[in-house]
Amino acid sequence: MKLSSQSRAFVPRALQPAARSVYHGLFRLQLRARCWYADHSGAADVTGLPLPPALLRYRVSELLGRDEFLNIGEGCARLIEEHLGSMGVDLARTRRVLDFGCGCGRTLRWFLRECPDVEFHGADVDEEAIEWCRANLKSARFLRNDPLPPLPYPDLHFDVIYCLSVFTHLDEDMQDSWLAELSRLLAPGGVLLLTVHGDRAADALDPDGRATLQTSGFVHRRSRKLKGMVPDWYQTTWHSREYIERRLATWFDDIRYEALPGGMQAIVLARQKEF
Ligand SMILES: C[S@@+](CC[C@H](N)C(=O)[O-])C[C@H]1O[C@@H](n2cnc3c(N)ncnc32)[C@H](O)[C@@H]1O
Q: 18, 107, 162, 208: which has the highest count of C-beta atoms within 10 A?
């Protein structure tokens, strides 16, 4: 969250850091109040599973509404099934699946009833979200991981790994470390699915950012929106299609990139190399 340029014009430069702190303090205060209200009002859960508290919902989406949380999660689950299907994978017939960067289980919760024979795992750096998942989404297994690999699973452990809106936040070194780690964890022929920002999302960049995206295919920018709520290294990342296809080819085969309607997001699929 930024002080608007109009507000900045009225605040002397020396006082701007203090004004920014006050502004962020007030923002967090009003957010707490809205979270309290959202936790004490609204529709009942329709999935038969408890809903995470509003602050955990906000951390994965910057939205507070229960219906939005459920609708987006269900939409993501359907997208995953459909795209895995295009790679010849029927999720319900896999053995073991990892939701990497699962947050408070917005997507995973939809698979638990639909795929009772699959062993689902979720991992995230967000301790509070993982504790909530452990206590409430009991048929899956969860762990809190460090910002950098490794994860404590054996090699070739998963048939499918999906990561929604995770690589949209990592810098290039972290991204590469995690791609190598996820490739270690995927069984031969297993499928990785991840999301990145699509072409239209680059409209949010300034001219310098757009130029860098065109030349190098990768831009990682600081964003103050979730300051104080997520770790400092967690910022915003844009990839070009060409960059993603080239980078993933280091670890994976059969890479597919599909822009989602509206162009703000894209889904990337890749298959573990056969040994
Ligand atoms: C925008 S949220 C999306 C959460 C979830 N995938 C969903 O769609 O609801 C991004 C998530 O990635 C997690 N994350 C970011 N970097 C991570 C890392 N290095 N290891 C594990 N999780 C990470 C964050 O904590 C956060 O829960």
A: 162
C-beta of residue 193 within 8 angstroms of C-beta of residue 163 = yes
Q: Which CATH number covers residue 148?
A: 3.40.50.150
pLDDT over 70 at 42, yes or no: no
**Ligand 1 centroid from CA 11, angstroms:** 36
Residues 9 and 124 grouped into a single domain: no
Give the tokens for residue 115. 């795929």
Count how many domains the chain has: 2
Calpha distance 101→145 (Å, rounded)? 9
User: pLDDT digits over 70-91, tens only?
Assistant: 999 999 999 999 999 999 999 9
Protein residue with its CA nearest to atom 24 in ligand 1? 101
Residues with CB under 6 A from ligand 1: 60, 76, 101-103, 106-107, 123-126, 129, 145, 147, 164-166, 169, 234
pLDDT, tens digit, 9 for 90 and up, residues 46-55: 668 999 999 9
Taking CA atoms only, the protein residue closest to ligand 1 atom 2 is 60
Burial readout 182-193 (b: 16 or more C-beta within 10 A, e: otherwise)? bbbbbbebbbbb
Per-residue pLDDT tens over the stretch 170-203:
999 999 999 999 999 999 999 999 999 999 999 9
Work out which ligand 1 atom sits closest to the CA atom of 61.
1
Best of 56, 58, 60 for a ligand 1 pocket test (most atoms within 8 Å of beta carbon): 60
Residue among 167, 213, 215 at smallest CA distance from 193: 167
pTM tops 0.70: yes
- Mark whether 148 and 183 lie in a shared domain: yes
Q: Are residues 26 and 74 in the same domain?
A: no
Residue numbers of the domain that contains 55: 44-272
